[in-house]
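Hello,

Our lab assistant flagged a job as stuck in the queue for most of the afternoon. It eventually completed. Since we weren't sure the result was trustworthy after the delay, we are filing this so someone can double-check. Below is the sequence as submitted and the structure that was eventually returned. Let us know if re-running is recommended.
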Amino acid sequence: MLRNLWSHFVSMTSRMAGLRKERDHHFYQKALCPSSLVVDLGLHKGQFSKFVMSEYRSHVIGLEANPYLFEKLDRFPQGRFINLAISNQDLPVVFNVSTNPEASSVLEEMAQSFGPSTKVTVPGITLDSLFEKYSITQVDLLKVD
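-- returned structure --
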């Protein structure tokens, strides 16, 4: 009972503050409009980015390190999806693909927590280099998974 009450209070307070929850991500919705840029680091299947593009008509630059998930992503005119991993260097990264795609990670322990994982090498890029390469000067929403 107390947990339900607390959950309701948090939801109500979040809505009053302008926060919105979509696909387990909370964000300040008043920052988004058709001229907004969303950078989505960890697209997974792209549902959050698809939502932002359709609901707010915002532009998205999205990265997905998992090449198997990246191949299956739908493409949208206001979205640029790239098969890259954010890293501390502009060098290839060993990425561990888990049997549970949400557990795939550069951290082997994380990926193997759901069973055996497969190692793949993917291009890596720093956030600074990403912003420079794609001429990003302002980000209205940065989603990091």
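-- support follow-up --
The delay was a queue issue, not a problem with the job. The result is valid. The CA atoms of residues 44 and 133 lie 22 Å apart. The mean pLDDT is 89.
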